[in-house]
Amino acid sequence: MTESRNPADAGTPISRGIGARRRVLRAALDVLDERGLAGFTMEAVARRAGASKATLYRHWSSSGALLVDAMDATFQPLPIPDTGRVEADVAQVLTAFVALLGHPRFPRLLAAFIDAAERDPALGSLHAELTRRRREPLLVVLTRARDRGQLPAGLDPDLTVDLLAAPFFYRRFVAHRPIPPTLVTEVIARVLDIRPPE
Amino acid sequence: MTESRNPADAGTPISRGIGARRRVLRAALDVLDERGLAGFTMEAVARRAGASKATLYRHWSSSGALLVDAMDATFQPLPIPDTGRVEADVAQVLTAFVALLGHPRFPRLLAAFIDAAERDPALGSLHAELTRRRREPLLVVLTRARDRGQLPAGLDPDLTVDLLAAPFFYRRFVAHRPIPPTLVTEVIARVLDIRPPE
Fold first, then answer.
1. How many CB atoms lie within 10 A of CB B17?
2. What pLDDT score does B13 carry?
3. Predicted TM-score (pTM) of this structure
4. Is residue A24 part of a domain?
């Protein structure tokens, strides 16, 4: 996204470059956290960021687009590791993911998305897109390992991502049980059928 | 729970026996569905059921206790199958569970619990208890199969319940992807390492 140089933007924080963009994204998360998805409007974010609504619309076509950007910018897409050992790569991604579940804001936002998605199909699609992005690193790691012959040729990478990621969501949001540090290794051992080092 | 015979209850539906009890539980689900957990109060349920608040309190010690009863009564705990084959038993429980995810009310209620649990620890405990009850049939099936030697002696039944149940929650509430009829067999094959019949 290029920064606008339109003189009409003079004085609006968004035109001051990367720092201003970050400020809008941070304001977006603040609004989301405080008001929930129902209260997430361009107007509310503009007010919070000290920018005009028109300025925000020049950079984001909709409140949905802004929301996706804000989530991505705050909860960085996990890097794709390549240690040469598939179980180590998967462990890195899952460990980063467990850390995300311990973030002060992320679980509450995710729970709000889960609830809102049941009542609003547009928010459901948005949530699906956010999840798709979060699945990507694990999908790359598994597909690559399969193509390298480190995993069975018949392995379904998509189902495997479900099997690896789902227990952490389930423990956190449904069962409300603790996630011990050993759970990453245990899940990997069961799902990939690779024994953890003794 | 014994029905009150106190004359003060005369004319309140709850004292008319099992049908009245069902009416209160149905009213509780209606209130929950329409107002969410935040609006779930004894007063709202009493009004909806045409009973007095005092009468409700004689049967349920708190709105939480009423809520758990209402959820259990509406979404019957799944029966525990015993076909003699662990994969068939697990498939029955998971298939009933997938049906629950297709219920017109259940997913929205579960999503509301997920969201509310993040903001209110008491609701989190209530949700954990509801989940614990829903896990029970699968836990019994797996523990029994392990004790019969149909599954490895070292199998962790609790972790196995997580691995079996979580992908369905995750698909429905996080990834928003379809749950094909084949998914039950695929998940069982991967998690229990038992090949589906050709």
1. 10
2. 46
3. 0.82
4. yes
